Amino acid sequence: MTTTGTGTTLPRALRHLVDHTAATLDATNREITRAATRSLAEAGTRTPLDTASRAVKWWTVQADRRRPNWHTPNEVVLSTPFAHLRDMTAPRHRGDDVVPTLVLPPQAGHSSHIVDHSAEQTQLGTIAAAGLTRLHVLQWRPATAATAHVTITHYLDVVDRSIRLLGGRANLVGDCQGGWLAAIYAALHPHRVHTLTLAGAPIDFHAGESVIASSTRVLTSAFGLAPYRALVAAGGGVMPGRAVLANFIAIRPQAELARQWDLLAHLDDDAHVRRHRAFDDWFTHTQDIPGAFYLWLVEHLFRRNEFVRGDLVVDGRRADPAAITCPLFLLAGETDHITPAPQVFALADVVGTPSERVTMRTAAGGHLGLFMGHEALRVDWPPLLAAVRALS
């Protein structure tokens, strides 16, 4: 029996992971049983030729993958080896007298296109429709061997360069990991952030019931950063995006199974097939993360939770959340299993923003739905953005 430096025995540390895995497998088996029952019942009403035809069509849809792309016309106005700043402002709005808005998408093994998912589901379009027409987004580029060394300093610097290019002050919108990046930037440069809007952003990494947070605590208490360093080393200095995707699926594999069976049940619904393809084009198109950046966030945020504690130091400067005094808008998902609402709303307790200038809202859906779901974009984002526009 191996004992860690914290006195935790290895079997005890791993037992939590085993228990979670067993529960996940049990739920998956139940879903498979239900799906198989539905499939068999349906198969009894079809000829062998019909069944074969549907199988071919299902496989064709699954195999037909395309690279995600931007649906909003734009141009790159600043480029670095790890990020592009894209100007999404429509030509007719270039001279609008409104504070610029900068969006920081998630940075978790997928492309930044989730904020412009489709012509019908676009967070960028929702922002522009609210009157925040001078609109820019930072696109995180896939990591390579040449950018494996990029860390938090580089990301904060490109945010700062972008806001300076926009005039020196902006409304900052951060989704998921782009959210904690936006919050840290606001703490270090409060005079450059006009308003701060975060959606599904982990701020208190140890709050709520989060599988990712609990598994990180178990792994790091038993092995330190060794498992994460091993993943990065195996990726040649980067965190492989495919490993991040595998982890997301492993958290709730029954959801992925249900999605595939749902496609099978709606193969004759062209609109459903188009939506499925659009999501899969983004979901399965992974991109690698700079290894230095990934290991930094695991150590200082996931493991030590330094930002919300007020202990985070970046390049010799303390990123104190109390330095944030601008209007604050927080959006969480009611069924978000990646970033539970308490992780998001924790920022309200540590900022210097007066309580009357803090708005917290809970959307009905889960994590990804916050950024590209029809209901969140139609119901939850507009009132928050209208309040930002009124201040801008």
CATH superfamily of the domain at 75-208 and 305-390: Alpha/Beta hydrolase fold, catalytic domain
Mean pLDDT: 85
Percentage of residues in helical conformation: 40-55%
CATH level-1 class of the domain at 75-208 and 305-390: Alpha Beta
CATH-level-2 architecture of the domain at 75-208 and 305-390: 3-Layer(aba) Sandwich
In order across it, which strands form the biggest sheet?
1-2-4-3-5-6-11-12
Q: List low-pLDDT spans.
A: 1-26
Number of strands: 12
Which structural category fits the helices and strands?
A: alpha/beta
CATH topology of the domain at 75-208 and 305-390: Rossmann fold
Which sheet architecture does the biggest sheet show? 8 strands, mixed
Task: Give the terminus-to-terminus CA distance.
Answer: 60 Å
Structural Rg: 22 Å
**Tell me, what's the shape?**
globular
Beta percentage is 5-15%
What can you see in these coordinates?
The N and C termini lie far apart (60 Å). The strands form 3 sheets. The protein has an 8-stranded mixed beta sheet with strand order 1-2-4-3-5-6-11-12, sandwiched between helices. Strands 7-8 form a two-stranded antiparallel ribbon. The protein is built from 15 helices and 12 strands. It is α/β, with parallel strands linked by helices. The chain has a domain at 75-208 and 305-390: Rossmann fold (3-Layer(aba) Sandwich). 47% of the residues lie in helices and 14% in strands. The chain has helices at 10-43, 48-63, 123-129, 152-165, 177-188, 211-223, 226-234, 241-251, 253-265, 270-283, 291-303, 306-309, 341-345, 369-372, 374-390, and strands spanning 75-80, 83-87, 101-104, 135-140, 170-175, 193-199, 238-239, 289-290, 313-314, 317-318, 328-333, 358-363. Mean pLDDT is 85; it is low at 1-26.
